[in-house]
TrEMBL record:
<feature type="region of interest" description="Disordered">
    <location>
        <begin position="84"/>
        <end position="111"/>
    </location>
</feature>
<protein>
    <submittedName>
        <fullName>Uncharacterized protein</fullName>
    </submittedName>
</protein>
<dbReference type="InterPro" id="IPR045700">
    <property type="entry name" value="Rab3GAP1"/>
</dbReference>
<dbReference type="GO" id="GO:0005096">
    <property type="term" value="F:GTPase activator activity"/>
</dbReference>
Amino acid sequence: SNWPAFVPVHDPSRKAYIGIQNMGTVFTRRFEADRIGSQVPIRLMHLEGLHELFLSKFVLSSTDFPAKVKVNFSMKLTYRTPEHDYDHEETLDSEATESIPESEVASQPRKQWDDDCPWAEWYSAEDPVKGFELTTIWGEKMFEESFEMAEVENASSFDADSWLLQPVVSPYM
């Protein structure tokens, strides 16, 4: 078909979609769009559905290709710990807050991450590490069936070929 296939961009901060359009036997067109009004089927949120969509758009007919089409696939996933917001954290012990009126609780100094360190007497700073980001990469593999894609989607990050762990540092550093 000449209609483009839209698949969701896996970035929770945007409502974005990548479009892929078959332009004949050799060429394809790729583009991005934000906030498409139609609902994305749940099936396209999984690798198995994306594999089937890819085959339906790019395998023109069963007479053009052998019965089994092999698809090369690699995957990169990024896991990120949620940033800890110290400004909205309850900073005092429960025993201390019971004896202090609510109006005075807000004026109490915040407990810092380094309060129990030796240098806390003369220096204290905001925690520069806001969280961690783990990027896992699975190398290129060849798949023939959609159910194989479902198995890869459910694979443990321990099975990834390479890992990259890095801290998320405060932008004020």
